[in-house]
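Entry 14. Two folds queued back to back today. First construct below, sequence then structure tokens.
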Amino acid sequence: MTTMQEVIQEASRLTAGKELVVTTGVGTHQSIVARHFTFDHPRRVLITSTGHGTMGFGVPAAIGAAEAGAELVLCFNGDGSMDVDMPHLMVLAGRHLNVKVIVLDNRRFGIVHQFEGMQGLNHVATERHWKSYVHIAAGLGVPGVLCTSLPAFRRRMAEALEHRGPALLHVPVSETGVWPILKSDSRPEEMTSGRD
């Protein structure tokens, strides 16, 4: 199984030097995109809610960027954020927007799960069951593919980039924590590496 970092870095390599807008939902993937996607062109832009907890932000932000004239938009979402964003796939399909939605599925509300663990709490409703985002997207008019390995993602992402219009790539990933991280009610100098 691949990691979020590997998928994000591969998407960055496949689009290197291209003008694009990157949007994110909220969660573990949001921090990892900010750390591992390369913004190597003056017109490579990141639009994110910067940790304000607005699940469901990624796809609507991608729609706005595409409608404002962005030629290519990549939306990175976790499975939790994607559940909130589902209805917006109909807009992508109906308006045939060139938005590629990459669902990084670790089968949990990752950042919530991590904070619960850091505080010694039980994990309550943060572990999730498998669902096929490919089938859900197809039912809403967006073509989708399941990418079960990094080589599969590389191939399918390259194919998606060759065609205008929406696409969804569902990528199962291993559980990934965000390190270093700032604990609740802490000052920046109290950031933890996870080894504390």
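Second construct, same run, same settings:
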Amino acid sequence: MKGVKKVIVFEELDYVIEDELLKMRTNLPQKIEIFGKHSKDVPYAGELSCASVKNILSKLLNPEPVKTEKFPEAPFIPKRPPVLCAGCPHRASFYAVKRAMKGKNAVFCGDIGCYTLGNAMPLDMVDTCLCMGASVTVAQGLFHAESFFGDTAENSSEKLKNSSRKYFSFIGDSTFFASGITGLVNAAFNGADITVIVLDNSTTAMTGHQVHPGIGRTVMNAPAPKLSIEDISRACGAGFVEVCDPFDYDAASDAVKRAADYIGLSVLIFRSPCIALEKQKKKYTVDSDKCIGCGRCVKELGCPAIFIADKKAKIDAITCTGCALCSNVCPVNAITIANANEVKANG
């Protein structure tokens, strides 16, 4: 700072650099004025936008009053929250659990991954979400905590086993290997009556499709032992373990009912590959003559490929991956496989 008479410090958050400059100033022979947050020339809180910096500089460098310039406000843009991809197997898994537990008392504990988006409407299947692996531990914590209200722990625990409330954990295959196994061991050891739903799409989709121990190859693409989630679950003490395809509409819901009815630790693995890595199947289309415009396909699934136009359901042929979930939901069978001409016309 030799040869400098004035210093203006712009820094967001805490005044770290400004503090150091003030300390340095005491060892310099010349008098230096330092303007910043300590001098209250720069606001302590808020963003330092181009307009605010310009006004501060004008005030400090030009003694004459200057006209404060305001930039026009950004135009309104409709909110578009992230959603599960069209054809995502997690949507089918959530919907299978939702169908099976309709009208029943259940708590759904979520985890960290693409499936965190299951909290959004219309699925609304994530009641808690804390950190990786917390779906399993929070679910069993809620189960045990409830047993301590009212009667003694022993009586209440027995009462809970006969109650209708059920605690679910939703955890992805990658998160299962990273942070879910210890929670599973703890649940079995402490007698938690919970159902763990493992959403196995054979990848770590949210962060870029990294490999994990259940895939059979390393990050360098070298062969590796393919660890079995179902074998690990049994070894951890789960008394009920099943594997099911979430797109097998009725079988998936039936599997959820069996898992939920089991007293103790149950594990249901929904296995279907991530749609981002899977080749697209046949496209689906809506027969407008059959469609009654009930909107059930949109209101219940939230698939980004389906929308309402002219009071009828429509399917975007470009976005559709042919998962067929919507065709199972339609009450009048108006959604069918599209022929090549329909795909070309709608695309």
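Quick look at the second one. Residues 97 and 256 are 6 Å apart (CA to CA). The mean pLDDT is 90.
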